[in-house]
Amino acid sequence: MRTKTAPEIYVTVEDKKLGMTGFLVVESTEVGPGKGGMRMTSNVTLEEVARLADTMTWKNSLFELPFGGAKSGIVWPPSAEASAGKPGGSDELKEKFVRSFARKIKEYIPGKYVAGPDVNSGEREMKWISEEVGRWDASTGKPSNFCETRDGKKFCGLPHELGSTGFGVAIALETTAKMMNLDPESTTVGIHGFGNVGTFAAKHLSERGYKIVLLAGSKEATYRPKGFTSEEIQDVIDKKQTFSDLPGKKLPPEKFWSTPVDVLIPASVTNVINETNFEAIRSRLIVEGGNIPMTVAIEEQLHRRGKVIVPDFVANGGGIISSYAELHGFSPDQMFKLVEEKISHATSEVMKKSMADSHYSRDVAIKLAKTNLAKQLG
């Protein structure tokens, strides 16, 4: 039984007049259109997009969703951010980039690929894609007031800004912590990356009694032993601030990894845990909020050292589950209920087997995803 194919679509597109370069990788459309986010970073490559598409294949299969694995990316120059707020500046240029990219891959949307939010893309970028292609279902994570009516039923966007991915990370952590007999009130948590995933993971975990004591980005970390309150975190979300606006001891970024916490959530960029810092990690549990936060080789070394690791495509599946809910006309409440059900079930299945037999959790999760994919392919 074939359970995975070589990429069906593997393309680079360019708009030389605009200076836009973009990538799309779709691994398979045998069970449904390829589904995965569109990131906009200065260093995104076709190879990175392909790695992420591979991860999406297993993520979609693990949660038994009718999607193939896919990912896309646009090279977004740092110089563009410097022009923000000026006529013809960052926002206008970003819209031109996204719309140009959508036109270049229009032949694949939505039959082969359905876009979604990722690094530096959110509800407005998803709306631009759908508008440019002329299909509401060309993307997910769209604004909640961006709707269409089909067969008498109203379908509206479920924006990434609702925090479905961060909520799912919190559920994955809570599910695993219970299996490890960790008491929330005495369990300390550190989060690297305080964007959409990190902020909402912190919000939901603090509401459940966990102590969020350490937050970090690329330039500094903030440490507060008594913990940040859910009200403080919600204020950051509401005011669109950063963790640096929260009170606490400021640390250089490299100190984040050696600061002792019970649980670590890497929720920032690819390979943020690497050869320079992984040996300093003292946490018992690592819940991968971001995609590919480390190489498999480093992840395996941490596993051999006794770290309990919830893999990325298990922990951060809330976004793709929300995408499924959006395409099927779910309300936000229905979506969050589905995310909780699917994340808690998958996490329990994977981590129960991993911890009982000391098996590498990624191998366990991929084996389960392969079993699910084989069933989907018949």
Describe this structure in words.
This protein is α/β, with parallel strands linked by helices and 378 residues long. It folds into 2 domains: 9-57 and 69-157, Leucine Dehydrogenase, chain A, domain 1 (Rossmann fold); 164-374, NAD(P)-binding Rossmann-like Domain (Rossmann fold, 3-Layer(aba) Sandwich). 40% of the residues lie in helices and 19% in strands. It has 12 helices and 15 strands. The protein has helices at 46-62, 78-81, 90-104, 123-133, 164-179, 196-207, 230-239, 296-304, 312-315, 318-327, 332-357, 361-377, and strands spanning 9-15, 20-26, 34-35, 38-41, 68-75, 113-114, 147-150, 153-156, 188-192, 211-216, 221-228, 249-251, 263-266, 285-287, 308-310. Strands 12-11-10-9-13-14-15 form a 7-stranded mixed beta sheet, sandwiched between helices. Strands 1, 2, 3, 4, 5 and 6 form a 6-stranded mixed beta sheet that branches. Strands 7-8 form a two-stranded antiparallel sheet. A hairpin with a 4-residue loop joins strand 1 and strand 2. 50% of the residues are buried. The model is unreliable at 84-88 (pLDDT under 50).
